[in-house]
Write a structure and sequence with these properties.
By secondary structure, this protein is α/β, with parallel strands linked by helices. The chain has 22 helices and 18 strands.
Amino acid sequence: SETIQQPPWHEPKSESKTAKLHVFNTLTRTKVPFVTKDGSNRLTWYNCGPTVYDAAHLGHARNYVTFDIIRRILQDYFNYDILYIMNITDIDDKIILRARQAFLFKEFARENPTVSESLKAQLKALLADFVSQKFSVNVSDNEWHAGLKEKLAAADDAKGLMHLDAALKAQSAVNSAQSNASSADLLDAFQDILSPHLDALKGSTVNDPRISRELAAYWENDFLIDMQQLNVLPPDVMTRVSEYIPEIIEYVEGIMKNGFAYVTNEGSVYFDVAAFKGCGHHHYAKLCPWNAGNPKLFEEGEGALGMKLGGKRDPRDFALWKASKPGEPFWASPWGQGRPGWHIECSAMAGAVSPGTLDIHSGGIDLAFPHHDNELAQAEAYSGCCQWVNYFLHAGHVHIEGHKMSKSLKNFITVKDCLQRYTARQMRIMFLQHQWNAPLTFKESSMVSAISAEATLVSFFANLNVHVAEYRQLVEGENNFGSLEKELLRFAHQTQDRVHNALCDSFDTPSVMSALFDLINKANVYMKEKGANAAPDVLKFIGGYVAKMLNSFGVTGLGLKGQETQAASVNEARLQGILDAVGAFRDSVRIIAKKADCKPKDFFVASDELRSAFAKLGVVFEDRADGLRSVVKLLESPVAADGNENAEEDLSAQTAALSLKQQQAERAAAKAAKAQIHPSKLFIDNPAYSKFDENGVPTHAADGQELSKSARKKALKEYDQQVELYAKFNNN
């Protein structure tokens, strides 16, 4: 209409100072703004997967759970669409050696089923050679190991300590071995010494390729089960080296065509580091340039079998294709029978799935050099680009007793060992409490803190659900959004800002967890003060936000009833135990009720027995004041060890300890939060009172009647206690 028009719309003027995402990039060793390669919300991410030759350990858990957390944050909080690629290295020197050694050891055990004098003599001679080689001492001297452990410890020689443990274990076994007895225990004690010896003698005769493939397939499956148990999201695309041989060969040919690789006389292909550095527009060792001259690191990158190859022009050059020797699997190539080098695998597979520049590449910090630096060189030599990866993310080391956890040092704790003692949720919370790219020293206190944090979360949602369910509406015509509710909501909004700023600061999850627990403490104090009048809408807002953030980290199974991010898992055996306990309780009540002389205390005894039975199943009843129903809390329990006769007792003890830690954490949190309340404001918003004196102490009840002397005395006592508490926490 010409006469009726909509009024002008005033475009909102944003004054937002919202933080933008910055990430710690190993390519700069600084936090830099995060921007995808095309500026969209779509990104490609390649994560270095495992070399599958042994069980996954706590270091792997830290690595894959850490990047799972960051992946979830980018997807669920920052709303990126991610193509997540991960490889499985199923062709590698370590796999070949482990498979050969396991095969030869098994054959040796089959040929020597019982202990004989000749077997003992053979093993003693082998032990003597091992001790002489590793420690330059004579094992015939009964005191050969005196002071050696202390000396190795003082030199921080972790590998030496590992060899010493193997030698002492073998010596004890051979000295106590009885002739004609089964050789199983004796050979098991010698395995770390005997297996490499057998491989050196007969390794070249093991030519069946199935031996390596079967070992890799077994440990790959074992790894994937561990990741599932840890609630790690599967990759969008998973690549195996054995399935990408043609692509790898083509990739090597491309590098050679560009003048950055050469073939040796025996048929190996090496990357030419000097040619790459000398071309003028490429840089070698972008991640760790200070390591580019370290021969020890180069040797580790080439592998035990790769170091036996010849024809290198420069010690820094690394194998793209390794000519296979007898006892090693091989594939046909233009250069002869061989297999891929370690570094080329990732470059070729990532390029095959997602050609061009990667937004993110990730892995453990121990892979930065030479593995990731060599990947960068290969990819840039192949494509001619100057930057194959825009952001390199590296998770920090895990240390055990001061040493980096390592399979080669045999000082690792397997994922399965961890899951026997702790739940996946507890482990994830522990990782969240540490900065993702910083070193982590694993110790019991770290898990105690994580278990306590989990207990606080479980208790918070249990209490919140009870308060929401038991809410009593105020007198008709009165709203329930007063100063306490406004303050709590304001604090929740401040927490959202704290969480956002922390996540933008290179995924600072320790600060996020601290902010969430501050909000939980504030809500706990509010629920305690308001009781049944606690406003459910505000509590649901806070509970929903906390649950949403936890779910964004993969911490599942917690939330408001009917809105849980993921139902808490109750396995069949646990559910059956709960049903059996309820059935037994019903039987007890029926028997007691039929007795002519039944007494009330008999029902209390039956109730306590039910509580005890439930505690063993991770179900905790928390009694409340008369008239209020008990709070029931379902705690996660670790995967029970097969054949563990004490599993039920262990779980009961853990549940009791967790319940105690939970109560202690709640009391400490409530006290700390209450300490922030000025004494004059302690009673002001309490609907039970209507008038107050100059200090804010109540004088009249809600109905206008003056408080009785006893009620007034009680209020004054509580006021004095608050004065003391407030001064203690705020006058430092």
